[in-house]
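Workshop exercise sheet. Pairs work together: one partner reads the sequence aloud, the other fills in the structure field after running the prediction. Swap roles for the next sheet.
Pair: D.N. / O.F.
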Amino acid sequence: MTPPAPEHLPGLQLARIFYEEAVLPILDTAYPGLRHAAARVGSGSEVLGFDTARSADHEWGPRLDLFLAPEDAARHGADLRELLRERLPKRVRGWPTHFRHGDPGDPVGVMELTDGPVDHRVSVNDVGGWLNDQLGLGLGRASGEPTVGDWLAMPQQKLCEVTGGAVFHDELGTLTAARRRVEWYPDEVWRYLLACQWQRISQEEAFVGRCAEVGDELGSAVVTGRLVRDLMRLCLLLGRRYAPYSKWLGSAFRQLPVAEGLMPSLWGAVTAVEYSAREKHLCDAYEVVAVLQNATGLAEQVDPTRRRYHSRPFQVLHAERFAQALARTISDPTLRALPLSGSVDQWTDNTDFLGQRRPARAVLDALDALG
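Structure field:
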């Protein structure tokens, strides 16, 4: 009979225990004096702080990311991974350290006890190489600030993974320094992305009424859902929080101070069965976020109240007014030459595309050339 699973621990807490009680003693014995950093960063719901007992069914458990100086990673990385296979305990606080793969070629691992060496989840990297894999940047070096193109090509989910999680030990200092460099957007990039997010809203805010006017209530509801999603992402931008991908977007939004006051309007908009209710709830939400934008002082004050869409009987914010006000504050010539299309995840949410760095940079380079 399979023994019951241990009581759930937050993944970051388990990772710290795993490092201190299992991995560090092996390092101290086999590689005394080896300078390293230890963290739990990268992919995984626990890095964002959103893991639950459900998370334990795949790629959750005793996991750790070790970082060595580049020369030490090249010299000791493979041997250290093998040493951990042989010497790691089979369990930590009741959780197996071995991960079994499913079908051949399936990279997803599930915790399982084993009598032999453990297929562990301890990565060994140097900071620069890891960041290049994550973001396409050489931020492990003392120099190397991201360019405007770098910032626009980095999906916010990836930035969440690099800046989230926890660092348990960093005597090298390079991991902490690299995370600090991408902690948040430079001021002008931030203003540009805010302008682009308002522009996205302006592109569709009148469609809620137009769809309903021709009897397409489903289409009206779909556009409403898109606008609510864009408002949530806009609030995260205003709150200086990277937006995670769709599974955790609502969870991240709920942590914002503005969420409590906005939730009734957003929920009312997406659950409304009639256009008039959708429009009212959306406009209520627009006005709250518009006031929030004005309060930042990033641009000139813009009237935050709803109004008719030109001569048509639809109530909207005319969100392009906020986009234009923000765009006027940008002095960086690269950003000023770009259309208000934004960063990679403001113009696509395709997971396979966002996982590829080169196509995103190619699109941004093409936009820059058009400018």
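Discussion prompt: The chain has 18 helices and ten strands. What would you look at next?
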